[in-house]
Amino acid sequence: MGESDRIRYGQVYSPDAIVAYILDKTLVPALTVNPVEAIKVFEPACGDGRFLTAVCERLTQEYLRLGQPGTVAIRNILARQLFGMDISAQAVEQARARLKHQTGGIPEHIICGDTLNKTVSYPEVPLTPDYYDVIVGNPPYVTWQITAPIRAFYREHYCTAGKGRMNLYRLFIERCLELLKPEGYLGFICPNTYLTDRDSRLVRKMLLEKTHIQEIACLPESAAVFSGVTQATTILVVQKKEKISVNHRVRVKTLTAALQFPQDEGYLPQRYWQEKTGGKFQLRPVWDEALFEKIYRGRSLGNIAEIYQGEVNLTLCKQDLRDVPGQDNYPLIRGCHVIPFGFRPEQQRNKFSYIQPSRMMRGHATAKRLVFQQVSNAAQSLRLKCGLLTPPQPVYCANSTNYVLLPDQDLSMYYFLMALGHSTVWNLLYNIGSSTNHITVRELGVLPVPECPPALRRRLVSLVKKAAASPGEPDAEIVRRIDEIIYRLFSLQESEREMFEKYRRQSGKGLP
Questions:
Q1: Fewer CB near the last or first residue (10 Å), C or N of the chain?
Q2: Fold of the 3-283 domain
Q3: Where are the domains of the chain?
Q4: What does the alpha-carbon distance between residue 232 and residue 247 come to, in Å, rounded to a whole number?
Q5: How far apart are CA 404 and CA 301, in angstroms?
Q6: What is the DSSP secondary structure assignment for residue 185, as one 8-state letter?
Q7: How buried is residue 200: exposed, middle or buried, by Cβ count under 10 Å (0-12/13-18/19+)?
Q8: Which residue has the higher pLDDT, 15 or 216?
Q9: Does the domain made of 301-506 have the CATH classification 3.90.220.10?
């Protein structure tokens, strides 16, 4: 299987540095409380065996440290301690060959099979609840090729399968927590989407109720951990618990590709996610909760405006799209057209910029609307980008945008909201609450909107108009002046402002 096929089917193998990091956080603490000969380690999607060979090396070193002969160590490890499974027979052969080359022995418990299939048993690899001391790996990140029958099977057997979009890595988390012994350690590198997205709600609930989350280490897309893959990931380390301590704290950090720390790590009480964020794993800097209570104490965007995803479904309306203007061809704003403080709707290849609607649409095409990009890379310094439509003629918005509609169509209020949309405060707050690349209507709706005296609103309107006169890369001085006013509106003190300024300086590098 070539590299492109491996990526397509979720078979992306972990770099050695990631393997070593995860074993430091799982196997090492397990060895401090268990005799080396009692440790059982499982890799549920073992690929070519990189984790397995590293585990074998570390267990062998521990045996040697205790004075045991290497031959005894290898015999014990391969016969009773090391277990792996993968659905790819080719990958399993590679893993077995790696281990044979490393040890000279025959790995007895590395087999071709499906860890997620609860209706099949394998004598060589027990899939028994509470069996393994350590489970590690890089589970497949797969959504598209889950067929309807397989989806139905998973929903029958996995409570985290839920009703939303399914991804195999979430099912692997549930399955492996079941196979893990109480007090055992699980360490996975997986996408960061489980942190906040709606489809991962049940996975987060399970982690909060059944584990002490030891560490979440974030690797942004800029870390480029996997060749050919653009995906922000995290290293998730948990310890299975029968009773959850109310005082347990989670270590949160950000890593570079070299596993260095670009900023200080922090700790969050695990109960914080249950008590304050509705179960979302918001990895915000550890700030005084009073600051966030102050920011969110008033109205939200959803209280004062209607928020919609763009009315034109680009798939359903494909036959209506046009590449030239015409009498009945109206402008179409797509997500790729939205830039800071405005739009750049030039024609792009296969990105038609006009529509001749053949079906009923919402009656908003001639209304003033503040239009946001709906897909925005989480590593960008400016997650929220928006422009204001004030059309004399109909203009439509694609479903790759979201838009804000004010009932009273107050133009100065639209400019005020555009200032908030490009402010450091809103962009940090949004990044804290979202770990995906999608800007959702629901997440926009909870952003806070402070009261703004007329004099300050006039100043903001003037600044936004200047920025909108030449949209694109915003003028740094205009953005600074907008931020200064927004800080005042939220009554932020100098020390509190510095927290946001630190985010602005580190944006794209730090915590999501």
A1: N
A2: Rossmann fold (3.40.50)
A3: 3-283, 301-506
A4: 29
A5: 9
A6: E
A7: buried
A8: 216
A9: yes
